[in-house]
Structure formats: C-alpha cells, structure tokens
Amino acid sequence: MTTTTPDAATEFETVIGLEVHCQLRTQSKMFCRCPADYASAEPNTFVCPLCLGMPGTLPVINRTAVEWTIRTALALNMTIPELSKFDRKNYPYPDLMKGYQISQYDMPLSEGGWMDVETEDLGLRRIGITRVHLEEDTARLLHRENEAGERYSLVDVNRSGVPLMEIVSEPDMRSPDEARVYLVQLRQILRYLGVSTADMEKGSFRCDANVSLRPVGADEYGAKVEIKNMNSFRGVHSALEHEVVRQAAVLRAGGVIDQETRGWDEDRQITLSQRSKEEAHDYRYFPEPDLPPLSITREAVERIRGELPELPDQRVARFQSEYGLGEFEANLLTEEPARADYFDAAVAALDDPSNAREAANWITGDLFAQINKDLAHPELDAQPITPTHIADLVGLIVGGDISRSQARTVFEAMYETGDTPATVVKAKGLTQISGEDALSPIIQQVIADNDSAVDDYRSGKEAALKYLVGQVMRHSRGQANPQQASELLVAALGSD
Ligand SMILES: [Zn+2]
Known about the structure:
This protein is of the alpha+beta class. It has three domains: 8-300, no CATH class; 310-428, no CATH class; 436-494, Arc Repressor Mutant, subunit A (Orthogonal Bundle), CATH 1.10.10. The chain is 40% helix and 20% strand. Helix 10 runs antiparallel to helix 11 and helix 14 (451-458) packs antiparallel against helix 15. The chain is elongated, with a radius of gyration of 31 Å. The structure holds zinc ion (ZN). Zinc ion is lined by residues 29, 32, 34, 47-48, 50-51, 161.
C-alpha cells in the first residue's frame, strides 16, 4: 500500500470570516450636524464641539443612518429586533476624540442574515451574516516625518463621527476566492441600495479578515488571526492566500498559531504581526448613557422593506427573462447600478423592445470597449453616448437604413462628437442601398464587368460569389446591403 503526502488543501480546511466597515453617505454625521462628505474638505473644517469630543455636548441620532442600516440589513436577509441600543467602546488612541467610540455591542440593529455566494471551486454556498450594526467613524491620523527624520502624526477630525456601518459575517467562507466574491457582491448591494459609495481605495469600504485553519473533518475552529490594512479586493485575496500558506507551514512544522492581529504589507506581499488580539472585555463596553434605546416599530421595518430597490440578483433575472439576455451579458450589465440604469433607459427608448439584445450588444461590446480605453471619459455617465443614441442606432440597423459596418462608423463618430446617429448618418452620407430596384442596376453592371468571376461561379466555385459581392460593395461605395446583394446576385446568375 502506498501513501501520498496530502497538500494544504486536503490536509487543512480554511475558515474565513470578514468584518466590513462601510461609511454611509448621509448628509450629516452620525451624532452632530457637520457634513459627512469630507472628501474634498480641508482638514479639520467639518468639525464642531461634539465631533471634537468637547465635554458638555450631547449626541443626537441621525435618523437616516438608522434607516439605511435597516435597509442594508433587510437586503441581507437579517432580522430586525424591536429594541436596539448604543454602547460605548472604550480604548485610548489619538484617533478617538472622546476616548470612546459610540458603537453597538449586545443589542445591534440587526442579526442573523445571509448572502448566497458562488465560486468556481466551491459552487453556490450560503454565507451567514452575524450582524449589521451602526457606529461612528474615528478621526484620521496622518503619519509624517520631518527633515530631521523625526516622526510625528497629524489628526484630521473631519472623518470623526461619520456614520459607519459594520457588517460581520459568520466564519463561513472556505477559500480566499469565496471571500473575494462575498466582498464584491456586498459592495454591489451597498451601491444598489444607494447607502454608500463603498469605495475600498477611498476608504469608504474597509475589510478586516479573520483566518484560521483546522484539520479537514474537525468541528472545532483553530486559533484565528485577524488581518488588517488591506486596501483593495486584490489585497484581501493576496493577504488571505499568504496567510493560509503561512499558517499551514506553522502547523505542519508542529507549531502553534498565536491568536493575534497581523497587518498586510502590500509592498512585500506578506502579513506581519502587529499585536496580540484584544478580547471584548478590554474595551469595557457599557450602554451609552446619553442616548435612549432605539425602539424599531414593525411598521417602520415593513415600510423600509417596501421601499427596497430592485437588487442585483433580481435585476439579472429580469434582464434574462424580459429581454432574453444571456447570463454573462446580464451580469455584465448589472455589475454597477449605473450600467443597469443605462441599459434600462436604452430599452425604454427603443421603438421595439424586442430589439433589447441588439442594444445590449452595443453597450457591452463597443461602448464598454471605448470606455475602457478612453482615459478622458472613464465613467459610463461621463461619456457622450446617451441611452437614446444607442436606441436610435439600433433602430437604424434593424430598419435596414444602415449596415452593421456603417453602424460601427456611426458609433465611433457619436463617441467623438456626441451627435445623434441621424446627424452622423446625414453628415457622412451613410445610407444603405437596399431593395431590388436600387441594387439591380449595380448588380447587372458587376456581372457585365466580371466575366471570369461569373464563369468561375457558374462552374461551381462558390468563392467567386464573395468576390462579386465585394465588387457590388465597391461600386456602391460600401452602401449596398451585403445580404441582399448576395441574394440578388445568386438569383441573377442562376437565371440566365
Ligand atoms: Zn460635528
């Protein structure tokens, strides 16, 4: 009997849980009236005594932030308890103006939801979501170094008090790929809900990951390591892959995994130990005495549920069933809500909605390709072609006014100028010659001028037909309808 050495995948099972912090794009901050969108503000200009942590100030709950958290929770299939409360999380760090953060501990706004996630390796699996709760963001520390090489930090308080939603998953993910798909889908849902820009590079969507390994078949979890400091989806994936390999090597060598926090070093592509992981009691949580508990009526929950927009999955299904799109196109068109809205607007502008697939082809093909290579207009809503332009272009093609190759010329001109298809067609003299009356004189001329090709065709050389169609296109300066030209040529050559 032979034995084989098991590889990491068959020896250990990977266990991943994710904590996502997501800034809500409300008008004002969580507990004061300062603007929440500080992106273009000078440091320390969106501040007041409350978010500066001055004594004697009292917080007031941002109602929209609570509603948006419930909206998000409902989209993630969570339960909304009737009673919720805020708590103080105490820890000393210069980014905390009050010395504590108002967060939620044992009575969050929502509990017990899930999201279905599909990967190539593991298939479709349901990932549990433990809780979605609401808290406030901290100030931002900017670490600097002076000319003498001394390090110092600057504090920008603009971010302090911005509503922050925390979305905690169960340790249900089993591979870095699954974690990435979970994050991509979560970001997509947040954008559809309109509650956050969910931009990882800009810090409005941040992710910490808990990773552990356990022997395949074991019930108990291994010691978990928390990874922080990942600034992109690729970073999360690389950090998780690196950490799985690192832990497997430690365990295989007979070592023990320390429960700790490690930071992802993007430049070196490794995780580095930062500190041993704190336990919840280190934070000395206690109920926030300045805020009353939140009572969430069932009427309010049902109203918010009723106002949920069409979510990505629903939109994919509708694009497939109503417009006959394939799964790939439907996914591509729903990746961002702006894309899906654009397509819906194009279909609405079509004379005949049964041409939706043709519109989808132009959007996912030529338009997306142009946007990808166009540095001046990298966004769908900033480029010059409107949904109506797409619908008009489709109308001209389907109506036989222009050929597909002419349509491409029209498309390129539209992208340059923003003109309507009709304007471009007129300016460039691009009309298609179709119909027997218009094409027959050209075809007769081509037959008369090309004896040898005609003989070749009649002696069975099919390729000669292509040449003759090409001559028709040349004589018509590319304006003949090639399909009709071919049919009329076959008829004319067969008839004498
Ligand atoms: Zn303030």
